[in-house]
Amino acid sequence: MAVDKEVKTAITSHDYIVDLSAIEEFDSSAIAAALNWVRVAQSEGNQLQLINVPETFWKLADLYRIRHFLDVSIANR
User: Fold this and answer.
1) What pTM was computed for the model?
2) Of 7, 66, 72, 77, which has the highest C-beta tally within 10 A?
3) Count of Cβ atoms closer than 10 Å to residue 68 Cβ
């Protein structure tokens, strides 16, 4: 996933904002990528902020019971 590599590279050097408004459909791989981005940013001492998060993202996060791992990085809910 090219986007995944770009985000990982960016978040290792500074704080980063990811706008999810253009993504129309999510699956478990998108949730896994977002969790990984949060982990990488935190391990580098940086902040990752997700904005314009669609409701479908939250539905999957709730289904997998992992929303609490992502809540710290969400700007708008």
Assistant:
1) 0.72
2) 7
3) 8
Q: What one-character-per-residue DSSP string does 8-29 give? A: HHHHTTS-EEEE-TT-----HH
CB hemisphere CA count around 22 (13 angstroms): 3
Side chain identity, residue 49:
Q
| Maximum Cα interatomic distance, the chain, rounded to a whole number of Å | 32
pLDDT one-digit tens code per residue, 9-47: 666 666 778 888 888 888 889 889 888 888 888 888 888
**Three-state DSSP class for 54?**
coil
Residue 75 has pLDDT above 70, yes or no: no
